[in-house]
Design brief:
The complex is a heterodimer.
Chain A: H1 16-32, E1 47-48, E2 52-53, E3 59-63, E4 69-73, H2 76-89, H3 96-104, H4 112-120, H5 141-152, E5 163-167, H6 173-185, E6 190-197, H7 205-208
Parallel strand pairs in A: 1-6, 3-5, 5-6
Antiparallel strand pairs in A: 3-4
Helix pairs in contact in A: 2-5, 5-6
Chain B: H1 28-47, E1 51-56, E2 73-78, E3 83-88, H2 96-99, E4 101-104, H3 105-118, E5 125-130, H4 136-148, E6 156-158, H5 163-175
Parallel strand pairs in B: 2-5, 5-6
Antiparallel strand pairs in B: 2-3, 3-4
Classes of the chains: A alpha/beta, B alpha/beta.
Chain lengths: 216, 180
């Protein structure tokens, strides 16, 4: 009895289509990814259960591990106004060329008295070598910066001002307190702290009785 | 285009026709690479969405200091190496040693919770103080504990530390170095 012979089929599949799909998705994700905004100093942020997303267009105060404070004006619309305002209110006497260098900086981390010479050199000093903005109680220059920020937002709703504090885990508490003092001096009482998300512990009060949507 | 006849030689009967090579390439490794990069990008993008914790600072107003009932107050002190100290009410010199207790971030949640349950909500107040050795992480963690324990906003505040408390923390830390 002759058995029906099963024809042997090739196990090779045409991979072209799959390859197309893979690279299509890949290019989509690469293009859709926003490039990470430049960071003044590497910062490991603390974690919190907060789920509020922060906007990119913000004024970010970065607190480095060693307590140095940097200011990032990521709000393009107001950046120029803030810088012009600080030049005027603090009588820094910057030339237009220096101001344009300052406007090109991603972050500001120099005290007022060194700002001019820093800008004359083209502002190419890496963040780690900059002094940071002084925040101590006798000479709180951050307060002046924040005042200029709030001046630039004058006439707008205070909700438009996204003030973020991005602090490093191991920064010391007094440095954070100085930043808060600077905000208070500029009459700003609302700000946000950048944190990494963290799961809500299931056995906690918040996990068992989540609050109703409020505080919006 | 005829590329098979190299050098413009005439095809003769003796010239061998080169074998036609298949144009099919095995794309499997390319697919592998594609998906590898794809997974890498998918993971890195979703991981890095920063979240923000809202802070509302009170206005400094020396004439209008908030009065807190002794029975409802709990003071949390943050010290070096993630230590947490706490006491209820006001420190009374005679009973300081019983009042002033040491704890950790793991245990403090339970204590915060018990206090919240046993206190009428109108009187409840957590006072958070940090000394100079506390870190930024500690300050955020304790505020986060407040959220985790469902303490309503306005029932906790960050206040400057007093010299007495500073001294007490130092004493406790000296008493059990490397303690719990």
């Amino acid at each position: 009895m002759g058995r029906a012979k099963i024809p042997r089929k090739s196990t090779n599949i045409d991979m072209t289509a799959m390859c197309d799909v893979a690279f299509l998705l890949l290019s989509f994700f690469i293009l859709a990814t926003k490039t990470k905004p430049p960071e003044a100093v590497p910062v490991t942020t603390p974690t919190s259960v907060s789920t509020k997303v922060v906007k990119d267009e913000a004024i970010v105060v970065t607190l480095g591990r060693d307590g140095k404070v940097f200011l990032m004006l990521n709000d393009r619309k107001h950046k120029d106004a803030i810088i012009d305002d600080i030049n005027k209110t603090k009588a820094l006497g910057l030339t237009p060329a220096e101001i344009s260098v300052l406007k090109k900086q991603d972050f500001i981390g120099m005290p007022f008295n060194k700002l001019k010479s820093f800008l004359d050199l083209g502002g190419g000093i890496p963040a780690a070598k900059q002094d940071g903005i002084p925040t101590d109680s006798t000479n709180n220059e951050l307060a002046d910066w924040i005042k200029s920020v709030s001046n630039a937002f004058a006439g707008e709703s205070i909700d438009n001002l996204n003030l973020l504090v991005k602090g490093d885990n191991s920064a010391k508490y007094p440095a954070f307190k100085n930043i808060k003092t600077a905000f208070k001096k500029a009459d700003i009482f609302k700000f946000k702290i950048v944190t990494n998300p963290e799961g809500i512990p299931a056995d906690s009060e918040l996990g068992m009785n989540p609050p109703k949507a409020e505080g919006k | 285009m005829d590329t098979s006849s190299g050098g413009g030689h005439k095809k003769g009967p003796g010239v061998k026709k080169p074998k036609k090579l298949s144009t099919r390439v095995d794309l499997t490794p390319m697919v592998d690479l594609g998906f590898l990069l794809l997974t890498f990008f998918v993971f890195t993008t979703t991981m890095s969405t920063p979240k923000g914790m809202a802070m509302n600072e009170p206005k400094d107003d020396p004439d209008n200091q908030l009065k807190v009932k002794n029975s409802g107050a709990m003071t949390l002190l943050l010290g070096k190496d993630d230590h947490v100290f706490y006491y209820f009410g006001e420190l009374v010199p005679e009973t300081i040693s019983q009042q002033f207790k040491s704890s950790t971030f793991k245990e403090i949640r339970e204590i915060i919770n018990t206090k919240r349950k046993n206190t009428p909500i109108g009187d409840l107040m957590y006072i958070i103080k940090a000394n100079k050795d506390a870190t930024f992480k500690n300050a955020i963690d304790i505020l986060d504990e407040m959220t985790i324990s469902n303490v309503p906003p306005g029932h906790y505040a960050e206040v400057d530390i007093t010299p007495t408390e500073e001294m007490l923390i130092q004493k406790t830390e000296e008493a059990n170095p490397g303690g719990k």
